[in-house]
Amino acid sequence: MSETENILLQLAGRALFNAPTSFDPAAADWAALYQEAAAQALSLLIWDTLSDEERSFVPDDIKRLWEQYSFNCVVYNELLLCEQEQVIRLLEDASVPCVILKGSSSAANYPNPSLRVMGDIDLLVEPERQMEAVKLLQANGYGDVLDENHHCHMTLSKEEITVEIHKEPNGLLLNNNSESLRKIREYFSDAIDKRQFINNLPFPSDEEQAVILILHKLEHFMLSGLGLRQLCDWAVFVNNKLDDAMWAKLKPRLSEFGMLTFTEVMTQICIDYLRLPEANAPRAMQRDDETAAKVMEQILKEGNFGKKVDRYGERLFNDPNSSNRFTSFIKVLGNACREHWPLCEKYAVLMPAAPFVLLGRYMIQRRKGERPKLNLKKKYQQAGHDQKLYKKLKPFVTEPENC
Q1: How many CB atoms lie within 10 A of CB 27?
Q2: What is residue 2's predicted lDDT score, i.e. its pLDDT?
Q3: What percent of the chain has pLDDT over 70?
């Protein structure tokens, strides 16, 4: 871990939990710290926690950049929250109930919710009402659906605002174990009925929010990159909501879903690196120092949603439930064909042609600048190291509860 990363983690711990810090502001590389905070989507949170004395050491050019960036984040957050209220009111007035996923539901657990940078609006509706919700938005200024074949949501935009209408939470595509997948989908089948209202906003129940957060983190950790902002979301949730009583109910669920080991590692990282008070975390959790250190190394390396690295295409080779990278390639490619060309799911005779159809689409999108360059040899080599780590986390593999 670099000194800049160490300072960033100290400041995040101070911002979230008032943890003490021990760094010399005169010796800090403030330009590097600003860049690292931006890559991890923590610029606003970190700038706010700096003292006047610490800010006096920030070079003027970096200070101007940081202040402007922070101001832009605050303005965008307010714009997004106002639009979110309007969209929710639109849906509720049409008797299409919804639940906020991530975003402001995560921000609500922060000491100052306005410091949690938001990206878009994610709303969960009942699966059979997804298209109804989409048409309502389109009738009120939103454009065409941007991702018609996505497995769990439809994305629409209006000017700089993006709304995702979900029929289920993110992360379930990762799960290739049909029994585990069935159990998780069944668990969320009544999420709308169990929603709670906080400040007139519809949030998931606390237990379901925990599962949503872990699913989302697991998806990004394995596919695109998990950053510190997502880690902070889990840390403040644990601090505010996840007491021993809730953990006693949640732990069997996570074990059944194959998410227990990943949850325990994420919580350990929050304690060790973000200074989450150990007294505020459930006591009956297992530690794995080696795995936690490797996961943290990857989080720091990749940044928010993989901003610092290129992981495009790596998903093909790192399926944790495959015996090797070759079988992973065959399995994930097949799943991708069924997801992105649904006709081959309905007509099995089309399956042999499906990879060529996807390749043709990729080449067209690549020429338009909509997709990055894909280097399969490089991704194959990178996935070898990652797959070993993923297997230790046992994603979606039902495991006995640890005592």
Answers
A1: 9
A2: 92
A3: 91
